[in-house]
Write a structure and sequence with these properties.
heterodimer; A: 179 residues; mainly alpha; Four Helix Bundle (Hemerythrin (Met), subunit A); 2 domains; 72% helix; globular; B: 5 helices; 67% helix
Chain lengths: 179, 155
């Protein structure tokens, strides 16, 4: 597997931001690092030609989540930070390292990006969607066709989950209006 | 305790207010573009809804959270959230009433030729309404915290 310069730079950026989000002692710095991580991931999705996912990651992960985190920080008392990095427990490092190794062991089993014989791309269902999505649903974006037509019931569930999250936040905070 | 009670969190700045006033209509237009055009290009209700919600957050950033809270009509936010669910579920269940499967857009074709395409657009718009209003709601709820309720005994 060869990486282009852009991909390598993005991976270094994303891993660096993830480490920053995990290790920085100052919570605000951690939140900002997390936002940068989300932005990097969304560009990686773009490079991997998944613009729908990239757009969601940029809007939700880098945008709304950061605002909500900062708002939560503004409403809480943040202790003064005496040093830059969080103190690291070596047992945790060993555990996380082992987990990363297990996950990394599965990477060689993944098909190459864009491999036409990969089960996902070559599968019967995918080929059916790609061949029939436009004639059956009238929309050109196959992702939208799957989301709103073929798998519309799942999407209704997702939309109701978002709605319920709002209602639950109202009842937890014992307020009656959204604003 | 509201955010605006704390000193120094909201800074009134002519530059930020002017920028937001100029940029906000474009951001809202872009959000609607993402929602509507999601059928033919990347995007859709979830992404467009978040961008639409962020317009209100931009306004709060420029004009202060409490002034934006007072300006915003809560009935519109609530109507968008529940209206979105009703539109989506209504389109889905309507096709069952017409004798088809859940969300089978072709059942609507006797009434409108391009029912599938515009049914999907309506569903995306419904999703956008839900996501935008819940994002706005969570924003204001988090900003308010527990403090806005009289006689609250915990927190």
């Amino acid at each position: 597997m060869t990486l282009s310069l852009l991909e390598a730079a993005l991976i270094v950026f994303v891993v660096g931001c993830a480490l920053g989000a995990a290790l920085l002692k100052d919570t605000l710095a951690s939140v900002i690092s997390f936002a940068a991580y989300s932005l990097g991931i969304s560009i990686i999705w773009l490079v991997l030609q998944a613009p729908d996912v990239g757009l969601t990651e940029a809007a939700v992960g880098a945008g709304i989540m950061t605002i909500l985190f900062i708002l939560a920080l503004a409403n809480t008392v943040t202790p003064d930070v005496d040093r830059l990095l969080e103190s690291v427990r070596w047992r945790t490092v060993a555990f996380v390292g082992a987990f990363v190794l297990v996950m990394a062991a599965t990477v060689p089993a993944l098909p190459t990006i864009g491999d036409p014989t990969a089960p996902v791309a070559g599968g019967e269902v995918t080929q059916y969607y790609l061949a029939n999505a436009y004639t059956e649903t009238g929309v050109k974006n196959a992702v939208t066709a799957v989301l709103a037509a073929y798998r519309g019931f799942d999407t209704l569930g997702e939309a109701v989950v978002v709605f319920s999250a709002g209602v639950v936040a109202l009842s937890v905070l014992r307020r009656e209006v959204f604003a | 305790m509201s955010v605006d009670d704390q000193p120094g969190l909201y800074v009134e700045s002519t530059i930020i207010m002017t920028t937001v006033r100029v940029v906000a209509p474009f951001v809202l237009t872009f959000a609607l573009f993402i929602m509507f055009h999601g059928a033919d290009s990347p995007g859709g209700g979830f992404q467009g809804g978040v961008i639409a919600g962020s317009v209100v957050m931009m306004l709060a950033f420029a004009y202060g959270i409490d002034s934006t809270r007072q300006w915003l009509d809560v009935r519109v936010v609530a109507a968008l959230a529940s209206g979105g669910v009703l539109v989506f579920a209504g389109i889905g269940l309507g096709s069952i009433l017409l004798g088809g499967q859940f969300l089978q857009y072709t059942e609507y074709e006797p009434f409108y030729a391009e029912a599938s395409k515009y049914g999907i657009e309506l569903v995306e718009l419904g999703i956008g309404g839900i996501v935008a209003s819940v994002a706005i709601g969570l924003f204001f709820l988090l900003a308010a915290g527990f403090g806005h309720v009289a006689g609250e005994d915990e927190a």
